[in-house]
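Appendix B: a complete holo record

For completeness, this appendix reproduces one full record from the ligand-bound portion of the collection. The bound molecule is flavin-adenine dinucleotide. The inputs are the chain sequence and the ligand SMILES; the output is the full three-dimensional arrangement of the complex, encoded as structure tokens. No fields have been trimmed.
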Amino acid sequence: MTTRPSGACVAVRPLAQLTTLRVGGPAEVWEVDDVTAARDATSEPFLALGAGSNLLVSDAGVDQRVVKLGRGFDDVRTFGSDTDVWLGAATPLPGLVRRARDAGLSGLEAVLGIPAVLGGAIAMNAGTRHGEISDVLQEVELLVDGSVERLPASALDLQYRRAHLPSGALLLRARLTLTPSTPERVAAAMAPVDAARAGQPKATSAGCAFKNPEGDSAGRLIDAAGLKGLRVGDAMVSHEHANFIVNLGQATAADVDALLAEVQRRVSVPLEVEWRRWGY
Ligand SMILES: Cc1cc2nc3c(=O)[nH]c(=O)nc-3n(C[C@H](O)[C@H](O)[C@H](O)COP(=O)(O)OP(=O)(O)OC[C@H]3O[C@@H](n4cnc5c(N)ncnc54)[C@H](O)[C@@H]3O)c2cc1C
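The structure of the chain with flavin-adenine dinucleotide bound, as generated:
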């Protein structure tokens, strides 16, 4: 690893180590803890990496540098009881959701159990049928072409599992507005979200592989096609939830990719992959 004068730490790493699906080849990973280092890292074309929980990275890796926000952008420790709060984009969502509940603040219940960091959750407009991160997002701070800019959430045109960030933007921070409640009420509102999660696989995955088609569920369609347990190498359609592809241990990105294509081929309704694909 080398440390640049700006403070950015640079190392070539297999992205399999930085993604929840545990597949993906090497990339030059730039970890940055402040805006100066982030400006240096984004001075050339880059890909922004959050918690890596919605990514399929090719076995060959990626040519662009990969920029990951470090602890300097993780504010979960400083999150108090403010209802209107700026938080760093590397703040892990699970810790934030827990702390909001403990502080008696409502608004994040729907994103319980999503293993993202805040930047990745905004970039994907992460959510469940109970709500999305866009429900509480007011404003974002972005680094674009070396300049720090603020945009209202409305400028991101947040839709089902997507946001429209300006090209080449790195999300640095976001302002959320939560609603005063009590820890008990927030916990009660989380219960159905938690119950829905209970049936999901605990095995290595990147969450739901396909977007739900209008008015239907990708999991239901894949299950109805009899594809649970379908396997390519160590990549398998989960027996517990048909929209999860799990890595049984030694899966490669090529295995996962071939399995995605086979599922799409065998399901009668067109299914769109929800994951971001890097290196294809
Ligand atoms: C077990 C499991 C359960 C899941 N459940 C859900 C669920 O219920 N609902 C749901 O919506 N998702 C779910 N997911 C998918 C995933 O957690 C979400 O899509 C999440 O928003 C991805 O966030 P991340 O930080 O991991 O981003 P990454 O996967 O690292 O990146 C995703 C995208 O965000 C971009 N990005 C990340 N950080 C930044 C930044 N700072 N600036 C600009 N762009 C950035 C990346 O470039 C990429 O395009 C699940 C995943 C797993 C593994």
